[in-house]
Design brief:
The protein is an alpha+beta fold. The chain is 29% helix and 28% strand.
C-alpha cells in the first residue's frame, strides 16, 4: 500500500529555500479550517483549535486507511492578521500577539469529501474526550494564488527579517498585497524540537495588478 505524503508531492510549496525568496502559484486546495484570535502562546482557544483539527485529521486518515488509502497527516498551517491593520503592517512583537486574528488549517488529500469529514466528526464526537471545538472545524477550499515564500529556520520570534524580505520582494517588483493573508506552515512540533532548529515556511500572497 503506497503512502501519500503531500510534503513530497508538493515539495515546491513545503520545502522552499532558506536562502532565497521564491515565487509560487498555489492552486485551490481543500483544508480543515478553524478561526480564532489572541496570542497563540496564551489564548486557550489556540490550543483547543489545534486539538480539534488534529482529532479530526487523524480520524479522517484512519477512515481512509480502512478503505485502502494511506496518507501522511499534513503539518499545521496558519493565516495571520492583526486587528484593524492591513497585510504589510503585520508585526511579530510580543505586544502585537494579543491582537492576532488567525485561521489554523490542515491540508487534505484530493480524495477527501465533505461526507468523509462528517463521518469523521461523528466518530470524534462519540469519544469521551472529544475536542471541545471539533464542531467548529470546517472543510473548505482555499485558493491562495501567487505568493512569495521562504523557509525560516529558528524561533518564531525571530521571523521578522524574513517577513521583511518577503514584503520587500513584493514592493520591489511593483506588485501589491492582496486580500489573502500572511501564511505560515509549521513543519516541526515546538514541544519536541529546539527553537533554533524549528522550520517554518513563511508565505505572503500578492497580486500583480
Amino acid at each position: 500500500m503506497t503512502n501519500l505524503d503531500m510534503k513530497k508531492t508538493l515539495k515546491h510549496l513545503y520545502a522552499p529555500s532558506a536562502k532565497d525568496v521564491s515565487v509560487v502559484d498555489i492552486p485551490p486546495m481543500h483544508y480543515l479550517m478553524i478561526d480564532g484570535e489572541g496570542n497563540p502562546n496564551s489564548a486557550p482557544r489556540y490550543a483547543q483549535a489545534v486539538e480539534a483539527l488534529y482529532g479530526l485529521a487523524y480520524t479522517i486518515r484512519a477512515i481512509r486507511k480502512n478503505a485502502g488509502e494511506t496518507f501522511t497527516v499534513m503539518p499545521l498551517e496558519g493565516l495571520w492578521a492583526l486587528k484593524g491593520k492591513h497585510n504589510p503592517e503585520i508585526n511579530l512583537t510580543e505586544a502585537d500577539k494579543d491582537s492576532f486574528v488567525w485561521t489554523l488549517m490542515v491540508l487534505q488529500p484530493e480524495s477527501i469529501t465533505p461526507e468523509i469529514v462528517e463521518q469523521a466528526r461523528a466518530i470524534v464526537n462519540k469519544k469521551k474526550d472529544s475536542p471541545e471545538l471539533v464542531n467548529e472545524v470546517r472543510f473548505e477550499q482555499y485558493h491562495e494564488g501567487e505568493a512569495v515564500q521562504i523557509m525560516h529556520i529558528g524561533s518564531y520570534n525571530d521571523e521578522g527579517p524574513n517577513v521583511a524580505r518577503l514584503h520587500a520582494h513584493i514592493t520591489d517588483n511593483g506588485w501589491k498585497f492582496g486580500d489573502n493573508l500572511h501564511h505560515e506552515i509549521y513543519l516541526n512540533d515546538p514541544r519536541k524540537v529546539a527553537a533554533e532548529k524549528l522550520k517554518t515556511v513563511i508565505r505572503q500572497p500578492f497580486t500583480r495588478s
